[in-house]
Amino acid sequence: SGCASHRVTSKKLFSMRQDPRSRPGSSNNRFRSWLASRSRSNLIRYAVTAVVVDRNGDPQVMIRGTRANRFTIQIATDKARAVILSGVDSSLFLHNRGDIRMEMDHVDGILMLEGGVRIDSVGTLVGALGVSGAPGGEKDEPCAKTAVAAYVDQLDMP
Fold first, then answer.
1. What's CA 118's distance to the chain center, in Å?
2. Per-residue model confidence as pLDDT tens digits over 60-87
């Protein structure tokens, strides 16, 4: 996959919102640690930003590559929110409902672009991961899918 090489410092990794459930060993902290370890070991070749949103579309975790520009934060967030809205990966949403793309792209907080994927636990949508910054959504989405696949078995929520 094309997800590896620009360093991300731990200073760029933060929780978007302090959650009382964010205890040591919680899903949120484990995911932040997992993302940080992957970026420290140079597993991200593109200057990307990854944003995790919860089932309400609220950002929970964000990590931005040191060379990723600030706009990738909003784009990654909006890709993840498109997943929450549609219930499917953003590329599938785009493919199935390309006819409403222009209208949806005017909805504040939603972008119909490739790069957003579902996060499921016990078959239930619990959040989404949006990635932005690779040269094209067709490269963002495999990065997001790789991250979710590697982490999803550690979720501690229904």
1. 9
2. 999 888 889 999 999 999 999 999 999 9
* d(C-alpha 1, C-alpha 103), whole Å: 32
Q: DSSP readout, 83-141? A: HHHHSS-HHHHHHHTGGGHHHHTTSTT----S-EEEEEETTEEEEEEEEE-SSSHHHHH
Nearest to 50 by CA among 21, 79, 23: 79
What pLDDT, on a 0 to 100 scale, did the predictor assign at position 33?
63
Reduced to 3 states (helix: H, G, I; strand: E, B; else coil), residue 62 is: strand
Instruction: Say what percent of the chain tops pLDDT 70.
Output: 69
Amino acid at 4: A
Distances (CA, A) of 35 to 5, 113, 143, 146: 13, 22, 12, 11
Q: How far apart are CA 86 and CA 89, in angstroms?
A: 8
Percent residues over pLDDT 90 in the chain: 44
Beta bridge mates, 119: 127
DSSP 35-60: HHHHHHTT---S--EEEEEETTS-EE
Output the pTM of the full model: 0.76
